[in-house]
Give the backbone structure.
Amino acid sequence: MSDTAPDRIHPAARMHAEEYRAGQIDRREFLTRATCLGVASTVAYGMIGLDAPALAQTATQDGGSLRIQMEVRALKDPRITDWPQIANIYRGWLEYLSEYQRDGSIRPMLLESWEVSDDARTYTLKLRPGITWSNGDALTAEHVAHNFRRWCDRTVEGNSMASRMGDMVDPETDQIREGVLEVVDDTTLRLNLASPDIAIIANVADYPGAVVHPSYDGSDPANGDMIGTGPFRLESHEVGVKSVLRRREDFDWWGKEAEGFGGASLDEIVYLDYGSDPAAWLAALESDEVDMLYESVGEFIEIMDSLDLVKSEAVTASTICIRANQEAEVDGQKPYADVRVRKALQMAMDNNVLLELGYSGLGVTAENHHVCPIHPDYAEVDNPVVYDPEGAMALLEEAGFADFEHELISIDDDWRKNTTDAAAALLRDAGIKVRRTVLPGNTFWNDWAKFPFSSTNWNQRPLGVQVLALAYRSGEAWNETAYASPEFDAKLAEAMGIASAEERKVVMKELEQMLIDDGVIIQPYWRSLFRHYKQGVTGAEVHPLYEIPTYQLGFAAT
Amino acid sequence: MEPLSWTGAFAPLVPVLWTALAAVAILALLRWIAGFFLSEGDTQTQSDGTLAVTRGPLEMLDLATWWALLAALAVVAIFVAGGAALAEGAGILGAMSRRLLPVWIALASTFALSLTFKRRLGLYGKLFDSTIGMIGFALVMFWVFAAFMGAFGLIVTHDPLGQSGAMKNELPGMPYTRMLGEVAEGSYPYYLLGGDNLGRDVFSRMIAGSWVVVQIAPMATAFAFMVGITLGLPAAYKGGRLDELLSFLANLILAFPVILLFYLLVTPEIVETGIPAYMAAVMFLFPIAFIAILLNSRYRTRPALNTPLLIAVIGGLGWVYLSLISERFGPLDILPQALDLFDIPGGILVVFVSVVFVNSPTVFRIVRGLAFDIKTRDYVAAAQTRGEGSWYIMLWEILPNARGPLIVDFCLRVGYTTILLGTLGFFGLGLPPESPDWGSTINDGRKLLAIYPHPAIVPALSLLSLVLGLNLLADGLREESLRD
Amino acid sequence: MLAFLLRRIAVMLLTALCLTFVVFFLTNLQPNLEKLAKAEGNSRMTDAEVTSFLETRGYARNVFVKYGEWLGVLPGFVIEQPDGSVRGRCFERADSVPPDAPAFCGVLQGDWGYSSVFRDDVGSIVATRLGLTAKLMFWVMVVMVPSALILGVLAGMREGSRTDRSLSTVSILSTATPEYVSGVILIAVFASSAVGLRWFKGTAASAMENATLENFLLPVVTIALYGTGYIARMTRASMAEVMTQQYIRTARLKGVRFRDIVLKHALRNALIAPFTVIMLQFPWLLNGVVIVETLFNYKGFGWTLVQAAGNNDIELLLAVSVVSVFVVLVTQLISDIGYVYLNPRISVA
């Protein structure tokens, strides 16, 4: 937590507290919203009359080596990182301005606090004092400004932070807009936005948002000793095999003294790659080759429960979307441009069956609009999709696509493949012709956004509007449905500028209903994530965004 | 409904079977060990000219082993025959035996007919003199009949692609239920070999999978043989530069690790470029060329018959060829839709082409080797002095005389192709993901192998038995053809 | 003999050249390059980004030129980047071409290139992975060769006997069981909780550093099984043939003990054919190695092949093919030479 409570509490946060007391939002939603507005989480808990939960500070022993099963991919410049697994490795030495917590709140990390103006256009970021880089430099506001410039550089191929920076990027120059950054003093940076954006703090907490030293040139982080602010350094990195983090000696990590952080008790963290086969992960746990899994999936959860392991669960807004690309041409026609076809596909699905067969029932069913009840801006829609296979076939006949054979594509992976297979079976039950294609991972991601009809997994983002802006706004790079509705865009822009939940909910409800009525996606369920680890491992609870905060890991003192 | 047990009413026979099998194993081992210490009984010629064999302990052991083996076989026969009669009353085995009744009938009639007329059936008939050959033939024909009848909907109990949420990973013999809606009227009440990870019927997928194998493996092998023969005969007969060039190319392909070749040819990216389609266009020309040359060399001297025959054959095959390679919106979209006889699903075609491509050079080498040997024979020299054309000599003199080893190799190669298909499925290359073919199902099932082995073990044993059958068949054929 | 060797080596080089070009061509097709760009850059890049990625990194050029660079007969490319720095085949990205950068850097110069998946020199990756596979293969040979020879000799010394029949059936059964079937069955029986024996481990990942009976037996046996049957059948056939030879009959008539006949007279001649077969088995074993390394999660050469092919890692895949082609051709050569040396009746003119 920050040492000094923010001087002022954002008015919207007070309003959210009212809403919480009125029972309109639950605790988790309140925490996400309030902390997003710059309220420290202790204060946020206080505002609703609760004590902040004492951080589980079980006594940890100093030292030790922890072995984690996780895919070891090639490292990349953080801003173009496309997998949380990559970030989990450089998380050892690179840190973030803010950190998304397991309970849904966001706490300052390299920042000490932030303030958001009432119109969500001015952000004042205050840096935590006394943070040094591993080469001895002190972290300054100018360094953070440099990172914002990096994040806003759209000329870099695959810079995924650029899409998260929204309006800060100048579409003319593909660089950061003039006048956005204002370095007030050594520890204060102000952002002056052209239009309101409520998601900035959440966005810089996302895994590509690691803060790098100004001397970093975008090369492979595994080359040499990359400068960072974190307590570990990369000892060795062998793609597909293993990666070793070793604690930096003679380095005074800021987190040791900072309240609420601490830790970094391990000497060594070893990430071991056991491929994508969960049976191998189980075998690795059973034969004592690892102490902790990255994720436990499907049927294996049950088996691991029977072993002497700790299980942790996170309810998330991670999901799978089975979607049609409205612009895609199949055999010379655009079958999915017709809303009746898309609606028919939606009506032929029973989300309960997809959850049961696809993910062993380990989650909650969703309503085909990609906003999750755990999102603070979720609103219940009035007209959800009803399972109606006959109606689906009738619609298809009406649209003249009754004989059309759909090719349903998915990646070759346990739960995504199973869910898509189950969807294909449901379509056949309804009398719709369907052919399944499964592509290996690399091939799949080549064209993922362009497939006519396929399934894609989406990870959780803290706010509902974030997902909608990333995936359904016209012309977005990640808009895999080719959904282009000016009406939707306008409403979304409106929602993005509303800090008040009740007001935003009204707009969100309309947005959600639009996605349903236009049959944009089949989005059957929200996954719960699970992780098993050995007794005595601390700080290893599964995080809804798969983050492994390396400094929290340790072994309980015996 | 109660789940089915494995043997139902015949449960009391199970201990008998185990006892008999244990006895066979122990006695055989004893016999083997005893063979080192004891000598066999003497054969003595008696004054009346007959032979008398003294019965030593070894002969007694032999006899006991035979009886134990016969007892075990008898129990198995009861399971099969009784099962076909009692159906579910005799548990899972009984129910399966009943479902397979058409196969039993077909097998029994094939054997009855073949054994009756075996003296008139040439090499095929001789097969029935060899126990090994008969066992192999029975195994192979079992799967062939099962595949064909399964394809006509006779044996399968459920849709091999149909899923039921309630049947996920259920053990063999569980009653069929659905999570969504009611069980349709008249549908089969059990999942005989259990459900897989997606609640599909393992038994039906096993049968449907055999159809994929029976469709592709022999056809692909036959194509590989036509390519290998069409190139191998002239290489050996003409020799020289042609031989050197073709041998170099064959060795080139053979030097490629098969898996690497598959990874290079069967990925979606390569399919997108159309390379497999072009390869198919080239490779499918060989059978036409082969048949055309075969006929032409025979009837060359009778143009009145030859010309119309060739026109008809090439025309017909050409049409089939064009509809085979022409695919709508594919890389080769030659034939108008109205004339296109059939479309091969893209995945199958690619797999087919790769398997032919991998097998052809080996066949080429075998044919070349055989032809080298045969071309020095007198009858070839005689044909040459008669002034026969070289293609006539190659196809009508050399080839028939090489048929023995080639038929044996064909059987082995079908088995090998089955294994290759499985390898492709194992690496998830080519065939569609839901495909019930054995390789894919083994690969799907192995993920949950540690907890639910049945979805992987069933196709694994099926593949094993078919390949074993083909090997035994080849062995039997080799033995019998050597006796010529 | 020398001329024979030289000719064989020339053919080998020509074969390797042709094969690497085929691999090079296939991996450099446009869809494969796009796959590579997305794997190396960001998996969710746009088309324009992919194009510029390929151009700035020298992929979007003539395939023959690129092949020449890989071979080392053409100078490596130097391409100026949009930001003014330069990128080249033979040096890291820099502001200007470093003066000490070589002009040529290809296979001929001993530079096997850089793996885009593993971010490491291809040479060192292949060396490490080959080492691990060599360990696996060594134990496979230790298990496979003696058991196959014993099976074959026992079966072949009395052709048609009951021992022959049963052992032959065993070897046919083992040739009919591909690795992915036997592997699955072995894991199910000996390493799964369903059967419950749990004697061995279902993964060999730990065997890379420390191979024990527990973690290494199943993968070794799985590969060995498939080959055993084949070699045993060859040995049996060869043994059976030798046992019908005149000199064996003579020895038997002279009253030499059967055991001595087998060990002293028959064995040497009977082992010529299996020797060539064992040598020719190497390329087939590579298949098994790929399957078993995937199944048991052992990160050797086969695993590298799958990774390289799956990710279209061009230079690694080329090195992998060169190595495997080399193994195939060298074993063929050894088998031919060995055949000549072991068999007194054949000589190379």
Remarks:
- The radius of gyration of chain C is 26 Å.
- Chain C has 13 helices and four strands.
- The mean pLDDT of chain C is 83.
